[in-house]
UniProtKB/TrEMBL annotation:
The gene is cutR. It holds the Pfam family Trans_reg_C. Keywords: DNA-binding, Phosphoprotein. GO terms for cellular component: cytosol; protein-DNA complex. PANTHER family: REGULATOR OF RPOS (PTHR48111), TRANSCRIPTIONAL REGULATORY PROTEIN CUTR (PTHR48111:SF36). Coiled coil: none annotated. Transmembrane segments: none annotated. It comes from the Bacteria. Residues 124-217 form the OmpR/PhoB-type domain. Residues 2-116 form the Response regulatory domain. Residues 124-217 bind DNA. This is Transcriptional regulatory protein CutR.
Amino acid sequence: MRVLVAEDERDLADLVAMGLRRQAMAVDVVYDGAAAAERLAVSDYDVLVLDRDLPGLHGDLVCRELVARGSRTRILMMTAASSVPERVAGLGMGADDYLPKPFDFTELVARVRALGRRSRDQVPPVLTRHGIALDTHRLQASRDGRHLHLSLKEFAVLEVLMRAEGAVVSAERLLEEAWDENADPFTTVVRVVVSRLRAKLGDPPCIQTVPGAGYLL
C-alpha cells in the first residue's frame, strides 16, 4: 500500500511514517500543503493522511483539489479540532475519514488499512493463492501451513503479486506500490527482493519472470 503523510509537525509526521512502514506500507512524507499537492499530482497513492491545518496551501484546499480530480486516493483527515461541526465540515469537503488528535496509533493503522481497501478493488484481508496465505492485518504469511519469515519489503512485494491475481506485474509497478519515493528505479532492488522471496517460498516455484514485462505469481 502506498501512503502519503502530510503533516507540518515534523516529529509527528516522521513517527507516523515510521509506524506505517513497520506495517509493510510504502510511505512518503511532506510538511506543507504545496508539497502535498505536488506529490499527489505526480504519484498514485492509496491513502493520504492529511493534517487539516497545513501551512502554505491549507489542508482543506488539498482535499478539495484531490476530490475534484476524481482521484481514487482515500483521505484520512487529522486535526486537533475534534468537535462535531469540525468533523462534519471535513467529511463534507470530501474526506473519507476523520481522526482527531491526539490519537491511538493502532486506530490510525486500522483506519489507513480500511481506506486502502476501499481505494482499490475489494479484496479479503487474507489473500490465498498456490498454497500461500497472506494475512495483511497481522503481517503473517505461510505456504502449505509452513510459516514464512518475510521481511517487510518481501511481504509488500508478495502482497502486490497476490493482489494481481495471476496478471503480470512490472518492476516499475512493484517500485511504485512497495517502495517510497527514495527508491532508485535504476537499481536491481526489485530483482534482489524477488530472488529472496522465491527462496523463502520454496518449491514448487511459484513466481515466474516474464522477460521484458515483469513477474507473475
